[in-house]
Amino acid sequence: HVTIITRNRDLGVTKPYEFINSKAHTVDGFKNGLSIIYCANYFFVLLSLLKQNPSFLWANSLFSRYTALGVIYSAWCNKRLVVSPRGELEPSAIQGSFFKRMYILLLRLFNLKFFVNSLREHRLLEKFFGQHVNVIVAPQLVARCIAKDSIKNKDFVFAGRLVPVKNLDFILNIISNSEIPINLDIFGTFECEKYRRKIMSLINTLDSVNYKGAFDP
Asked: Are the CB atoms for 3 and 54 separated by under 8 Å?
C-alpha cells in the first residue's frame, strides 16, 4: 500500500486546490491501494505520518522542509528513509547558498540512504556526504525506449516546473536537430519571464512542439 503525502497547493500559491475541504484531505479509490493526503502545513504532515505509521518513507526532495520533518520522524520512530535529491546538488542549484551547505552538514549526522538516477548524482552525493555515502543508482530507461522501433514517430510529454535547471531548452534543441520525428507536449508554469520568452521563441520554430499550459492536479 502506497500513500503520497504532499502539500495542498502548488508551489508559490497561497490558496489550496479547489477540491480541498480539510486540513488533511485524503483521496482514495485509485488502483492498487494508492492514497493521497493533501496537507495544509507541517503539523498535519506529522499527524498523517503518525496515523499511517509507514514501514518505509521515500522523500522526493533533499532541501524540502517536509523532507527535514521526514528525517526527524524516521529517526524518532526508527523508520527506514530514502531521499532522492533530484538535481538539487548541482552547482547551479546550490552555488552561493550558505543555508543549504549548513543543512547538508546537519543531515550528515543522520544515517541517510539515497536513491538517484545517474552516476553524476552519485558523484555529487560523494562530494557532499563523503565517499561512503549509502546510495542506490538506478538509471532511467530512456535509451531502451528510444532504441525500440527507432524509425517511428516519438511522442513525449514534459510536465514540471519550467525553469532553466530542468533543461527544457536543451530538449528543444535536440528535437530541432533530430532525424527522427519527435512530438512534444509541454505542461507547466513559467517562473521567469526571460526564460519564458526564450522557450516560446524555440517552440515557435518547431511544428511538432506544443505548449499546453498548466493542468489541474
From this structure: yes
pTM value is 0.73
DSSP 121-133: HHHHHHHHH-TT-
Interval 65-111: pLDDT, tens:
889 999 999 999 999 999 999 889 988 888 888 999 999 999 999 98
Of 191, 177, 186, 193, nearest to 215 (Cα)? 186
Cα-based torsion angle of the residue sequence 186, 187, 193, 195 in order, rounded to the nearest 10 degrees: -40
Range list of β-strands (E), 60-189: 80-83, 113-116, 134-137, 154-159, 182-187
How many CB atoms neighbour CB 1 within 10 A?
Answer: 9
195/182 Cα distance (integer angstroms) = 23
The yes-or-no verdict on residue 151 having pLDDT over 60 is no
